[in-house]
Specification:
Layout: H1 16-20, H2 52-63
Length: 64
Amino acid sequence: LVTTLGGEIYGDTQKLNEWFRTVPKNPVIIKFNIQSVFDLLTTERFPEDKKIKEKAAFITQVLE
């Protein structure tokens, strides 16, 4: 039994590596996480911005 996600339908006469090459053309999301865009406003991502924490707090306050 073979279970596939994405790509073309896997046929009995098809080799697995042939199916594998079709996945980029028809991918299927099987797992994802959603995070707040505000989580991107960090000192690690903006090391030169000394006020990034204050900016992040202000933007969060205004938009939430």
